[in-house]
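Hey, quick one: can you model this chain's 3D structure?
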Amino acid sequence: ELTANGSCGTNTLYANITITDSTNEGNVGVVELENGLLTTIYPNPANENITVDLSLAAPESTSLQLIDATGQILLTKELGRISLAKETINLTTFTNGVYFIRIVHNGKTASRTFLKQ
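Sure thing. Here's the predicted structure for all 117 residues.
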C-alpha cells in the first residue's frame, strides 16, 4: 500500500509484489555487474551475517574489505585466485549503520553498500 497526500488530496495505490531471485537463495539483496564482476550481497539490510557472492569472468586474485562509514577498514579477507566465491561475514560485533564491501580484483576495485540493523 502506498498513500500520497498533497494539495490535490490523497491517493492510495495497492499492489502485490513478489520478489524472487534464485541467485541469493530467496533473500532480498543487491545484484550488480561491473568490470567483469557479478556481485550479490544479501540480506540487505543485514542483522547477524552478510553473504557476498562473487562471480568473475576469469580467475583473478581477489580480496574483500569491510569498511565502516568513516572509511576505516574493519576486516580484510584474501580470497586468492578465484572465479567464484561465497563469503559470509559475521556482523554481530559491529554497531548498526551503513557499511561498505570493497572488492579488489586484479587492480580493479568495486564497492557495495549495505545496512546493518
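One thing worth noting: Residues 22-32 have pLDDT under 50 and may be disordered.
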